[in-house]
Amino acid sequence: MALRQDAGKEPSIELFIKAGHDGQNVGNCPFCQRLFMVLWLKGVKFTVTTVDMKKKPAELKDLAPGTNPPFLLYNGDLKTDFIKIEDFLELTLAPPRYPHLSPQNKESFDVGADIFAKFSAYIKSTTTNTYHETALLREFKRLDIYLNASLPQEIDHNSRVDMLVSNRKFLDGDHLTLADCNLLPKLHVIKIAAKKYCDFDIPAQFTGVWRYLQNAYEREEFRHTCPANIEIEKAYLDVVGKRK
């Protein structure tokens, strides 16, 4: 069982993430960005090492043989499963010293669960196949409805005025949570790759989604952990080349 961080003692944390095509900058990996955001939001000191997947350094091969980023060294202990890493960080880097990042509402995690799979099927399909585009749009509509609907904590039961449309910034309120760390990196990839290779834009009618993205890009924890657009475009070049 993980132990919470001792008061007054900073842990030693090194996050290893996928490097870009130059072998140095941040590469395209939503799971890497997810953990990068979690650590930034926790406000803990940590270092980030990019791993060139074409020539993985010998010391990293010894550290995590057969393991691809993201992985983490926490006080010298290697952790390799990104979901377990996230759970560990939420439990270990806990209040009062570090913020609690779990969302209040389970649906904040569930609402975008299928959107990346629908995108993956869409970008692999021919441009004349509208089935996968329709399926992707259906997931965006589901997300938009959720973002525009008031959460339980937004409803003032003593007020005579009903809040018809939510004005919250993020999935679960006005603070970024683990749900956002999961979904936002995927939405960024979809936004860049689908535009480049499918000429697809998130429809303007999805006002909740656009409000969400605009608020997210204003936050450095998201904006500064995103890979460059060219990294996403290069990552999907081979995928698009295999379209039938």
Q: In terms of topology, how is this protein built?
A:
Blueprint: E1 13-18, H1 30-42, E2 47-51, H2 58-63, E3 71-74, E4 77-79, H3 82-92, H4 107-110, H5 115-124, H6 131-148, H7 178-198, H8 207-217, H9 220-223, H10 229-235, H11 237-241
Parallel strand pairs: 1-2
Antiparallel strand pairs: 1-3, 3-4
Give an overview of the whole structure.
By secondary structure, the protein is an alpha+beta fold. The chain contains 11 helices and 4 strands; from the N terminus they run E-H-E-H-E-E-H-H-H-H-H-H-H-H-H. A 4-stranded mixed beta sheet has the order 2-1-3-4. It is flat.
Placed side by side, the strands forming the largest sheet appear as 2-1-3-4
Tell me the structural class: alpha+beta
Q: Low-confidence segments, ≥5 residues, pLDDT <50?
A: 1-5
Oligomer: single chain
In what range is the share of β-strand residues?
5-15%
Work out the helix count: 11
Mean pLDDT: 91
Shape: flat
Radius of gyration, in Å, reads 19 Å
Topology, number of strands: 4
> Element order, helices and strands?
EHEHEEHHHHHHHHH
Note the gap between the termini. Answer: 49 Å
Question: Helix content range of the residues, please?
Answer: 40-55%
Question: Biggest sheet, open or closed, and with what strands and sense?
Answer: 4 strands, mixed
